[in-house]
Amino acid sequence: PATQPLTQRLALPLRVPLRGEHPYGAPQLDVAHLLNTNENPYSPPGEVIAAITDRVAQVAATLNRYPDRDFHELRHALAAYLSSDTGVDVAADNIWAANGSNEVMLHILQAFGGPGRTALAFAPTYAMYREYARNTATNYQEIPRNADFTIGLEDARAAIRTHQPSVIFLTSPNNPTGTAMPLSDVEAIAQEAQQLRIDGAPALVVVDEAYAEFRRTGTPSATELLSVYPHVIVTRTMSKAFALAGARVGYLAAHPDIVDALRIVRLPYHLSSVTQAVALAALDTADLLQEQVDTIRKNRDRLVDWLRTCTTQGRPLTVADSDSNFIFFGLFEDRDALWARLLHHGVLVRQSGPAGWLRVTIGTDSDIDAFTTALTKELDQ
Ligand code: PMP
After folding, report:
1. Residue 355 alpha carbon to ligand 1 centre in Å
2. Domain that includes residue 236, residue range
3. Which of 200, 348, 349, 359 is the most exposed place for a label (fewest CB within 10 A)?
């Protein structure tokens, strides 16, 4: 056959739901102040870097072998950490982990979603839920939140009865709003989910707590519900509070039967020896990271207060309460124009959620100065 240039567009048997879709991801721009992906702005402290380097050097000599497929040591360490963060006793067989909580949630839908099944979430919320559903051929339904971003319980109950989801995503603190859910709301939804019969079993409630370590004093974690509602799953990540987004480690706590089901769908050896070593080193030195988390929480509260003193076109800004390492604020007539003007000052924030709102991640002092200076200038105009 005649040769063809590899640049020619190809007809592909792409799955129909993927046609016209674009890869998900915020712009990765070379900008001084990266406040658009809710990363921890601080590199890991020197002691943590030393611990990581030591652990990785040890496993380097064993890289001819596959990793511990069930990552026993890591599961023990994650259980100990989560127990100490929440005060709830969690054991190693309650823990599952993967390459980011993204992959943990993909595993959940691979095991519990799929053709003929539905996943339910409450908008505005994390945009990836829709993509995990699409990629696993799971139907996806989003129910709108109230204007203050709380979930209307009557709406939630009705939607659960109507759509009969096998998986319900709650996000607390939620992205992009930063708002956390009262435990009583999580509990009400867990009770409703328990009444469903999806091929004979209750629905699962996934509480995505990616930002939980940044929660304000008094804001609870849904881990408290695990022993009462065995169909609740709490997911966490090392990407945010542990300053380890580049290592890709997320995990969940749930009933051991849920963990066993996830083991069926994971790829063998999905967590590399290097990943396990890095995560173990960071968990060994978790205390050292607490200071960064405390600083981010303080800076967050201060920035929320400051934003609430700002006005746009004579009206005060609306600023959502934040239990996370970012703040959702508005309402701007043309948020895209403001986003572009902030970028012009070297400050990259995110257009996210309903029209008129922007989201800013809590950066270092210098990032926050750049953001407040740029925003003051732009709001004054
Ligand atoms: N859940 C929420 C609500 C998030 O905002 C993110 C990351 N932005 C994730 C999960 C996934 O994080 P990772 O895969 O890095 O653990």
Report:
1. 22
2. 58-287
3. 200
